[in-house]
Design goal:
The complex is a heterodimer of chains A (86) and B (390). Chain A is of the alpha+beta class and 86 residues long. Chain A has 3 helices and 5 strands. Chain A has one domain: Alpha-Beta Complex (Outer Surface Protein A, domain 3). In chain A, the strands form 2 sheets. A 3-stranded antiparallel beta sheet of chain A has the order 2-3-4. In chain A, 21% of the residues are buried. Chain B is of the alpha+beta class and 390 residues long. Among the domains of chain B are: 63 residues, no CATH class; 76 residues, no CATH class. Chain B is 56% helix and 9% strand. In chain B, the strands form 2 sheets. Chain B has a 5-stranded mixed beta sheet. In chain B, strands 6-7 form a two-stranded antiparallel ribbon. In chain B, strand 4 and strand 5 form a beta hairpin. Chain B is globular and about 60 Å long. The two termini of chain B are 26 Å apart. The chains are: A alpha+beta (86), B alpha+beta (390). At the A-B interface, strand 2 and strand 3 of A face helix 5 of B.
Chain lengths: 86, 390
């Protein structure tokens, strides 16, 4: 499964963390270090499984943990209309 | 000097570029960070403390990990706000242009973009916009159409003609879909304020500035600098961020000294400038470039409003007493001072009619008498911290 960023989303990185702004709603979200690593990878080039593998390598977590966290994160991003299916 | 005041003072010195060594400031720099965090938030300098954490650490000022995490959170909040306002102000500019409304952006985001090393270092909670009084209705309609709602503040009880006559700012609550708040200003100073600015002079001194590729308008650096000093006074100097604003604005290399001096003279701000100089020297260890070789006659010091009281976050006056008393120090000459005090305690009949004598004149006169008694009581009794904190 692949996802892409929705239009009208602004993103700024700061000290390993970042802020996502939904320009349509005016709501902003803080991404932690893992979320900040994942956000730029969400694109037509990467599957969710592929991103989870990179998270596993980067943050030294189990494959199961990476996939569960990835799934939860994607659900939240979809709910806030920050990403959509590619 | 207490631990947290030393830390705040060190932050000011780092901002002004004054070399600070571990031994140069007297006082302890270790201890509980909780009062400091409260104070940094109060003075709206939490993001600055985070930004300068390394130079602060080099001088022996350290924050505990929990405080650092909190400072980082405030910084991220500021970053979010800049993003939100940048986006909205571009949209608002398009709206204003479509209605052919001329306007100027003031303070917050302009200062953040113009003089701070990073725009997120200057915290702000709304967009201050100056419009011509005759455009008030159009802009209100435009904002309401854009889902803004008026704040339920004091000024809403007054009819439009009073709002225009006394140049009250119009405060809008945040617009839900836009997540922003706007303050509409009709003038640079209210009719009842001790110092009066010529709005046309400000309008005529406009310059463009870039907001993420969008060209907006504000005032030239000299007018911004003069207004920053006045703005700090208007709010009784009670937040450090206003001193930092004024310092950075007046430290700009592109400021024209002669023009700045002429504005100080024109608006009778020389005495206010003298007080500002005293406090600034104490806080920053040097004067901003434009004042650096501007000869200050009779540097004035205020026994109660000084760097220590400002850093502590508590004024020695209640706000109502400060409103009456501070102009006594900053206005030049006994005539101007007495005139201001008299106007405040016993406003002219026209003002009395405007505010206190309406349809129910009996109630209006009673209210007037009650408020005058309160003004005299505020002047005579110093309630200070209790009233201030409430």
């Amino acid at each position: 499964m692949k996802y892409i960023h929705c239009d009208n989303i602004d993103w700024k990185e700061f000290d390993d963390e970042s802020v996502l702004l939904n320009l349509s709603t005016g709501y902003y979200f803080r991404l932690n270090q893992v979320g900040t690593f994942i956000w730029p990878l969400i694109s037509r080039e990467h599957t969710i499984g592929g991103i989870a593998d990179r998270v596993m390598e980067k943050f030294d977590v189990s494959q199961r943990q990476a996939k569960t966290d990835m799934h939860d994160f994607i659900e939240q991003l979809l709910a806030e209309q920050l990403i959509q299916k590619a | 000097m207490t631990d947290y005041k030393v830390k705040l003072l060190t932050l000011c010195r780092i901002i002004s570029g004054i070399p600070v060594s571990k031994d140069s400031l007297s006082g302890s720099v270790s201890g509980d960070d909780r009062p400091l965090l409260d104070l940094l938030q109060y003075h709206q300098v939490a993001a600055l403390a985070y930004y300068y954490r390394k130079p602060l650490a080099d001088t022996g000022v350290h924050f505990d990990p929990e405080t650092l995490a909190n400072l980082k959170s405030y910084t991220l909040l500021n970053i979010s706000r800049v993003m939100v306002y940048e986006h909205y102000l571009k949209h608002l500019d398009d709206l204003m242009q479509s209605y052919s409304v001329d306007y100027r952006l003031l303070k917050g985001i302009v200062t953040a973009k113009s003089v701070y090393p990073e725009d997120y270092l200057r915290a702000f909670g709304d967009a201050d916009i100056l419009i011509r009084p005759e455009n008030l209705k159009t802009v209100e309609a435009l904002l309401e159409k854009d889902s803004f709602k008026h704040a339920d503040d004091l000024y809403r009880v007054f009819p439009d003609e009073i709002i225009q006559k006394y140049s009250f700012a119009q405060h809008f609550l945040r617009s839900e879909p836009n997540n922003v708040a706007v303050d509409l200003h009709l003038n640079m100073s209210g009719r009842l304020h001790p110092f009066q600015f010529d709005s046309d002079d400000f309008w005529d001194s406009s310059i463009s500035f870039q907001l993420d590729g969008h060209e907006l308008k504000t005032f030239d650096p000299e007018h911004q600098g003069v207004y920053a000093i006045y703005h700090a006074f208007k709010h009784y100097f009670f937040k450090l961020i206003w001193f930092i604003d004024a310092f950075l604005l007046l430290d700009r290399a592109d400021l024209d000294r002669r023009k700045f001096q002429a504005l100080i003279k024109k608006y009778k701000l020389s005495k206010l400038l003298n007080y500002y100089v005293s406090i600034t020297l104490e806080l920053f260890g040097r004067l901003p470039a434009v004042i650096g070789d501007y000869r200050i006659e009779d540097r004035e010091e205020h026994s109660l409003i000084n760097s220590r009281t400002i850093l502590s976050g508590f004024l020695p006056y209640s706000p109502s007493r400060a409103r009456l008393l501070l102009p006594m120090y900053y206005l030049k000459g006994p005539f101007a001072r007495f005139g201001f005090l008299w106007r405040q305690l016993f406003p002219p009949m026209e003002t009395v009619r405007d505010f206190y004598v309406g349809k129910n004149s009996g109630k209006g006169v009673f209210r007037y008498a009650k408020l005058r008694c309160k003004a005299i009581s505020d002047l005579c009794l110093n309630k200070t911290k209790e009233e201030y904190s409430s």
